[in-house]
């Protein structure tokens, strides 16, 4: 298979690896969520099974599973990480020690190691060092051609280049890294998860060792030089496993999400030319355009928690030891919170959504993701003239069940 064909396959949501997350689903997902929400905010069963399309699961095993679908229940579960615990992710055996699965003080201490590199202010560091140069490099490849599939020529590669370069990797072969990430999180194959996780450790070990000897101005050095403050106020460096845990988590959490969310944002704007025009003329609307995209069609629909005590949520009794699936996508279209929630509207008043979650585990990389999408949109609007969807082929669509994204983003410009 040629490099181009392999890239096409890896970023096709209906291909084998992505299909394990329901990527091929092309039906009315939000209609299904609305139907479930109308009959009660909380239901027994995993989201996918309630939709009638079960997916391979990795978190629950034999545990009872409940799912919640409105703003109030999702928001309550995100905020109370003691009752609705992120320990659920400890069952995911492939990252090594990582903040997604830690709780309480342990989580706070380990997250504090990297938090300064992920603040709103630090986004400028990411822009100058990795985001702007990567956007420029990718755009140079197609800006003179008058047409491109932005899903395959920009959205997919950008977050991967930024993440691997922030680790200090010079050879950021996107095909190899995407294969490894896809395998590392495959819900249907523990064997492939383990193999990919081990291979990532082999690739990163020399980079970690090099950064321990000689720090650089990059994210890897934040991990190799950073210290954890222990309970008794002593400090210690991160172990090799902890550095790897951070790196594997960031590869998984920061690349597929931002690839698909950038595509969704572009799709929403290109499908509403009046809104695209408004953003082109008034770039201060970019912020609203991105937040509205994350509200309207967040890439990852569902996250999970372990219930640590018997609790009543949304009127339903949930016993301790169950797993709760929080359907962020459904909460983000709760008609009790947003008028006409199914409409993408950049002029909507900005109020918090749950696309980046909330509470102690709120997305660590949200300012980086916003900066990536902002830089990419600005560059497209500045450099490609009258950019519009190319309607000569099959129309692009948003598809997918647990992972949402565009089928393609063919555009013409100039
Ligand atoms: C638009 C793109 C993104 C979306 C929609 C998104 C969404 C989320 C959500 C919903 C969570 C919470 C998971 C949970 O509590 O169970 C999360 C956590 C996280 N995200 Fe993102 N994310 C995005 C991009 C990124 C990027 C670019 C990075 C890194 C550069 C990143 C790194 C992380 C990390 C490390 C966590 C775990 C935080 C913790 O547990 O304390 N994400 N993300």
What does this structure look like?
The protein has 414 residues and is α+β, with helices and mostly antiparallel strands. The protein contains 18 helices and 14 strands. It starts with a helix and ends with a strand. The relative contact order is 0.19. Protoporphyrin IX containing FE (HEM) binds next to helix 13, helix 14 and helix 18.
Strand content: 5-15%
What low-confidence regions span 5 or more consecutive residues with pLDDT below 50?
none
Cofactors and ligands: protoporphyrin IX containing FE
- Tally of strands: 14
Strand count, sense and closure of the main sheet? 5 strands, mixed
Integer average pLDDT:
95
* Large-scale geometry: globular
Share in helix: 40-55%
In short:
With 414 residues, the protein is of the alpha+beta class. It has 18 helices and 14 strands. Protoporphyrin IX containing FE (HEM) binds at residues 99-100, 111, 249-250, 253-254, 257-258, 261, 294, 298-299, 303, 355-357, 361, 363-365, 368-369.
Q: Strands, helices and their partners?
A:
Blueprint: H1 3-10, H2 16-19, H3 29-38, E1 42-44, H4 47-50, E2 65-68, H5 71-79, E3 84-85, H6 104-114, H7 123-142, E4 147-149, H8 150-155, H9 157-166, H10 174-184, H11 190-213, H12 219-225, E5 227-229, E6 235-237, H13 240-254, H14 256-270, H15 273-281, H16 286-296, E7 302-307, E8 311-313, E9 316-318, E10 323-327, H17 328-331, H18 366-383, E11 388-389, E12 398-399, E13 405-406, E14 410-412
Parallel strand pairs: 2-10
Antiparallel strand pairs: 1-2, 3-7, 4-14, 5-6, 7-10, 8-9, 11-14, 12-13
The protein binds protoporphyrin IX containing FE (HEM).
């Amino acid at each position: 298979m040629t490099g181009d064909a392999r890239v096409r396959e890896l970023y096709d949501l209906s291909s084998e690896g992505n299909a394990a997350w329901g990527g091929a689903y092309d039906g009315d997902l939000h209609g299904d969520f609305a139907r479930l929400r109308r009959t009660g905010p909380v239901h027994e069963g995993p989201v996918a099974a309630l939709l009638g399309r079960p997916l391979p699961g990795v978190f629950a095993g034999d545990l009872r599973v409940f799912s919640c679908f409105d703003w109030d229940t999702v928001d309550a579960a995100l905020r109370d990480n003691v009752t609705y615990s992120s320990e659920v992710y400890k069952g995911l055996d492939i990252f090594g020690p990582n903040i997604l699965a830690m709780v309480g003080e342990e989580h706070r201490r380990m997250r504090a190691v990297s938090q300064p590199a992920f603040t709103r202010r630090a986004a400028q560091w990411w822009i100058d060092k990795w985001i702007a140069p990567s956007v420029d490099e990718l755009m140079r490849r197609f800006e003179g051609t008058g047409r491109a599939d932005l899903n395959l020529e920009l959205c997919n590669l950008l977050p991967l280049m930024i993440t691997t370069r922030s680790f200090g990797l010079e050879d950021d072969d996107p095909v190899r890294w995407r294969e490894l990430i896809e395998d590392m999180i495959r819900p249907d194959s523990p064997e492939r998860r383990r193999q990919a996780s081990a291979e990532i450790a082999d690739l990163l070990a020399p980079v970690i060792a090099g950064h321990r000897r000689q720090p650089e101005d990059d994210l890897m050095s934040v991990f190799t030089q950073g210290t954890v403050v222990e309970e008794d106020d002593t400090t210690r460096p991160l172990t090799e496993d902890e550095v790897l845990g951070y790196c594997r988590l960031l590869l998984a959490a920061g690349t597929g999400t931002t690839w698909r969310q950038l595509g969704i944002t572009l799709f929403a704007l290109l499908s509403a030319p009046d809104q695209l025009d408004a953003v082109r003329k008034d770039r201060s609307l970019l912020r609203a355009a991105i937040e509205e995209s994350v509200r309207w069609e967040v890439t990852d629909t569902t996250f999970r928690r372990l219930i640590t005590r018997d609790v009543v949520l949304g009127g339903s009794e949930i016993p301790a030891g169950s797993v709760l699936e929080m359907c962020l996508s459904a909460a983000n279209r709760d008609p009790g919170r947003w008028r006409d929630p199914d409409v993408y509207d950049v002029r909507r008043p900005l109020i918090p959504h749950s696309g980046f979650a909330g509470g102690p585990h709120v997305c660590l990389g949200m300012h980086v993701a916003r900066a990536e999408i902002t830089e990419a949109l600005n560059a497209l609007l500045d450099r490609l003239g009258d950019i519009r969807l190319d309607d000569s082929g099959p129309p692009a669509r948003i598809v997918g069940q647990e992972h949402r994204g565009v089928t393609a983003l063919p555009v013409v410009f100039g």
